[in-house]
Automatic annotation (TrEMBL):
Keyword Membrane belongs to the record: yes
Name assigned to this protein: DUF2231 domain-containing protein
Keyword line: Membrane, Transmembrane, Transmembrane helix
Signal peptide (UniProt feature, chain positions): none
InterPro entries assigned: DUF2231_TM
Residue spans crossing the bilayer: 21-39, 51-72, 84-102, 108-130
Segments forming domain DUF2231: 21-127
Keyword Transmembrane helix: yes
UniProt organism field: Jejubacter calystegiae
Length: 144
């Protein structure tokens, strides 16, 4: 996936493109673990979800910091798709931080709010990545 604003350096672009999709996988797995916990009530699943959320947050911060410097110094318009991706991802990360605190409570306290937050995080990151992929695809078609 090639991005218009990340052409400033191959190392930064490569690091961003490598780390950007990983948090969605961790958060989607945590969401699945939450759903399994609802159906099984085995505490193992909510503990696993807590670890997945924590690992997703650690990995999600690095691409957001790279995106922060590269997108906002590029002078693109206020509603550009790159900035929409940034804001959707940022809101998802904030919700994931709240979700990490919810998952740190007792296992039964996770059920309604934790699952809802996990769902919102996965939906927001999916929308952010889809709109970025569609934007990159349409740009590649226009270049041909």
């Amino acid at each position: 996936m090639k991005s218009e604003t990340f052409g400033r350096g191959p190392v930064i672009t490569g690091l961003y493109e490598l780390l950007n999709p990983l948090p969605l996988g961790f958060f989607a797995a945590a969401w699945l673990f939450d759903i399994i916990y609802i159906n099984s009530t085995q505490i193992f699943w909510t503990h696993g979800a807590s670890w997945l959320i924590a690992m997703g947050l650690v990995i999600a911060i690095i691409p957001r910091l790279l995106n922060l410097f590269l997108v906002w110094s590029g002078g693109s318009s206020a509603c550009s798709p790159v900035k929409v991706h940034f804001w959707l991802s940022l809101v998802a990360i904030v919700l994931a931080i709240i979700n990490a605190f919810v998952h740190s409570r007792d296992a039964w306290a996770v059920v309604p709010l934790g699952v809802t937050l996990s769902t919102l995080v996965v939906v927001l990151l999916t929308i952010a990545n889809l709109q970025q992929a569609l934007r990159d695809r349409s740009r590649e078609e226009n270049d041909e």
